[in-house]
């Protein structure tokens, strides 16, 4: 098995604390997806049953509004995307496309189920780590939303309520 891929996964929060032999087992079930520049790994609203670990290249995460993509952020090798669809089994909340030729390890829900049957404790650790990562991103999004909404609010003065709707 490719030690470089195992090392890449071990550096990620989602796979923190997961044993090398378990990562080797998981990688044995996975495929590598290669995407050319300007091509999509997936589009917003598509069904999703997998997450990706970016092995090389740079990708953009974008949401569409009125027929135009708005970039939410960019990701580089070692970052992951698509894990929400693995957790909630809903459609993709955003699109991910390659800013340059890119390759990613695709980890499907079926791959994770195989791991569940192979080593329940390590499967549970990955699931908890995925939940933590999604929560970290939600906290970050909440902070950005709060900052955006309060940017133009007047400073509170004497006699104003301690709470306000934004």
Topology (elements, then pairings):
Blueprint: H1 3-10, H2 20-29, E1 31-35, E2 40-42, E3 50-56, E4 58-65, E5 68-76, E6 80-81, H3 83-88, E7 95-98, E8 102-108, H4 109-118, H5 120-150
Antiparallel strand pairs: 1-8, 2-7, 3-6, 3-8, 4-5, 4-7
Helix pairs in contact: 1-2, 2-4, 4-5
CATH homology group: Jelly Rolls
Helices, by number, come to 5
Query: How far apart lie the N and C ends?
Result: 52 Å
Q: How many strands in all?
A: 8
What is the ordering of alpha helices and beta strands?
HHEEEEEEHEEHH
Radius of gyration: 19 Å
Structural class, from secondary structure content? alpha+beta
Strand order of the largest sheet: 1-8-3-6
Quaternary organisation of the protein chains: single chain
Main CATH class: Mainly Beta
Tell me about the largest β-sheet: 4 strands, antiparallel
Cα shape: globular
Which runs of at least 5 residues are low in confidence (pLDDT < 50)?
none
Integer average pLDDT: 90
The residue fraction in helices comes out at: 25-40%
Total number of domains: 1
Determine the strand fraction and express it as a percent band: 25-35%
């Amino acid at each position: 098995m490719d030690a470089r891929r195992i090392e890449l996964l071990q550096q990620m929060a989602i796979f923190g604390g997961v044993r090398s032999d378990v990562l080797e087992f998981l990688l044995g079930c996975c495929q590598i997806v290669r995407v050319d520049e300007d091509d999509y790994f997936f589009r917003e609203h598509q069904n999703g049953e997998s997450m990706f670990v970016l092995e090389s290249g740079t990708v953009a995460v974008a949401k569409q509004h009125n027929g135009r993509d708005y970039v939410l952020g960019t990701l580089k090798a070692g970052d992951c995307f698509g894990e929400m669809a693995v957790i909630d089994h809903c459609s993709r909340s955003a699109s991910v496309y390659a800013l340059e030729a890119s390759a990613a390890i695709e980890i499907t829900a079926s791959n994770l189920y195989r791991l569940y049957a192979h080593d329940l404790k390590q499967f549970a650790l990955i699931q908890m780590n995925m939940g933590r990562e999604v929560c970290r991103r939600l906290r970050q999004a909440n902070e950005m939303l709060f900052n955006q909404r309060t940017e133009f609010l007047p400073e509170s003065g004497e006699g104003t309520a301690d709470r306000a709707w934004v």
